[in-house]
Amino acid sequence: MTKRFDVVGIGNAMVDVLARCKDDFLGEVGVEKGIMQLIDMERAVDLYGRVGPAREVSGGSAANTIAVVASLGGSTAYVGKVKDDQLGAIFAHDLRAQGAVYETALATAKQKAETGRCIVLVTPDGERSMNTYLGVTEFLSPDDIDPAQMADAAMIYLEGYRFDGPESHAAFAKAIEATKGAGGKVSLTLSDPFCVERHRDAFREMLRDHVDLLFANRDEICSMYETDDFEAALAAAAEEIEIVACTESEKGAHILAGGQRWHAPAKPVKIQDATGAGDAFAGAFLWAYSKGYPLDLCGRMGCAAASEVISHIGARPEADLFEIFRSDGLV
Ligand SMILES: Nc1ncnc2c1ncn2[C@@H]1O[C@H](COP(=O)(O)OP(=O)(O)OP(=O)(O)O)[C@@H](O)[C@H]1O
Ligand SMILES: O=C(O)C(=O)C[C@H](O)[C@H](O)CO
Predict the structure, then answer these.
(1) Half-sphere exposure at residue 289, Cβ-oriented, CA atoms within 13 angstroms
(2) Is the pTM of this model over 0.90?
(3) Which of 24, 28, 165, 280 has the CB geometry, 3.0–4.6 Å to 138, for a possible disulfide?
(4) What is the ipTM of this complex?
(5) CB distance 189 to 41 below 8 Å
(6) To test the ligand 2 pocket, which listed residue (115, 118, 199) has its Cβ within 8 A of the most ligand atoms?
């Protein structure tokens, strides 16, 4: 049966505030390198006051992924909450302008917080250290999930970060039920190793019972299966999930499915800002998968898209990804 949407994503809606800094600065402001830390508004204001010149660019992990699918011509929708404020307007504009359907109700006046933002500190090696003020995106609830939209999705894409919220688990459960009930598939990204630490039990249940396609990076999958042995973690994931797509930074990505395994090499690039590498990988992979490309090509397109995104500041693609795939001989 043909579905209206190739992919519907659900996640934390936010705008990135990206600033370059030296490694020493991370220590001075108490930021741990390479991970995502949750912060409150007071800390967001303080940190913002201490960083150098910054750029605001729409972000949100699943939203970045959906933007990539949409940029490739895929049919997409996104669910994530913003407020009727300046950052909320920027976020909504950029997603819709990219071609995604975005209809989530704005936060109400009672929900006393602002649109989420992520202060991203980018060190000279291109690594990104993220400091997330969730704001109203935390209030995403089952009421925001339209079962008809989920039923019209060939695949839904759930963001692990969104597990940090009181009603998000119920929202995800509602989305999964509607999608699977209509014969659609479920994909999940583990998002961050510390996010896995916080929600390991919930992730475990979801992987075992619902997830058809898993996205993770090396640290996340090792954290998920509580091992330092990457190969053991990959094997454990492949045992319970139909398709596993695991990235490994400059070593590319590993795809495991049906007892087979492929390696997609990373595409060499001068890395400017690693923000959104995994998001772009997932977006291109999901697009290629939805168009029926073999899994090894899905992985290669994922790496090519990630390479484009990390070649500049900001987590959304700036070049025509389809043209890149064409010139790389992938499509
Ligand atoms: N130094 C690099 N050189 C080339 N490609 C890279 C490099 N780092 C990352 N990539 C590309 O990005 C993909 C995802 O990288 P990684 O495993 O670091 O994901 P991630 O940690 O989830 O990213 P992020 O959380 O920043 O979005 C890799 O599979 C690879 O294709
Ligand atoms: O912290 C979150 O929930 C995020 O989604 C952070 C994103 O990875 C960040 O906005 C990247 O664009």
Answers:
(1) 27
(2) yes
(3) 165
(4) 0.97
(5) no
(6) 118
